[in-house]
Structures are given as structure tokens and as C-alpha cells.
Amino acid sequence: MARLIKADGTTTEVVPSNGKKFTLTELQTLVGGYIQVLKSTEKQSSLVVDEEGLLRAKPVNLAASQLLHPMYLGQQLRGDVVVATRKEF
Q: Does the reported pTM lie above 0.85?
């Protein structure tokens, strides 16, 4: 099941409205902007973020940033982040 990690560190489970896959609109609503998909340290999961989080000066999401794949060394995620499997989006 997918989860939403808010910038304040709180986590909630989220479910696509059709029960199977998130729509683009749903993901954009959850993260509050245009989406970007990044690799996660969790196998079979990806991170869906607002690609303009830094430009919009959204707060750093420390909890989600810890899930970033090592290839993104030194980067921090901003704003709310969805952690989901590829099958869910």
C-alpha cells in the first residue's frame, strides 16, 4: 500500500480512488504540484515528489529524504512525498 510522507514527518496510508492505480491528477494533488518520480532505497518502491518543491520553497522532508537512493547523494526532498510501487502508478 502507498503512503504519504508529509513534510512535517507524519505518514498516512493512501489508496488510489479506483483501488488499483493512482491517476496523474491524484498524485499531483497529493504532492501539491507537478510530479517527478525518483528511485527509493525500498525495493519495488519509488518516490513521487513535487518537481518544483525547491523552487516553491517547500519545507525539507527529512523522513522522505532518508529513502532516496544513494545515487541522489546530498539531495533533500521538499514538500509532501508519496511512496508507492510502480504497479500503483
A: yes
Predicted pLDDT at 1? 87
DSSP string, 11-80: EEEE--TTSS---HHHHHHHHTSSEEEEEBSSTTEEEEEETTTTTTTPPB-HHHHTTB-GGGTT---BS-
- Average pLDDT over all residues of the chain: 95
17-53, pLDDT tens digit by residue?
A: 999 999 999 999 999 999 999 999 998 999 999 999 9
Task: Take residue 67 and report the three cell numbers written for it.
Answer: 529513502
Residue ranges making up the domain that contains 64: 2-88
What's the structural domain count of the chain? Answer: 1
| Cα 54 from Cα 57, distance rounded (Å) | 5
Query: Which helix (DSSP H) or strand (DSSP E) does residue 21 occupy?
Result: none
Percentage of residues of the chain with pLDDT beyond 90: 87
